[in-house]
């Protein structure tokens, strides 16, 4: 059996400035929520 405690997951998100500051803020918040739920 594989010991999953020794593994690492990288969660990378991104967006473009053309969507505006509010969208970028939402992307950052959603990414943080997903990363916290994985951790």
What's the helix and strand layout?
Elements: H1 21-38
* Sheet with most strands: none
Low-confidence stretches: none
Per DSSP, what share of the residues sits in E-state strands of 2 or more residues? under 5%
Total count of helical runs of at least 4 residues: 1
Q: Could you write a compact summary of the structure shown?
A:
The protein is an all-alpha fold and 39 residues long.
Note down, in words, how this protein is organized:
There is one protein chain. The chain has about 40 residues and is mainly alpha-helical. About 45% of the residues lie in helices and about 0% in strands. The protein has one helix and no strands. The chain starts with 20 loop residues before the first helix and ends with a helix.
Notable features of this structure?
39 residues, 1 helix
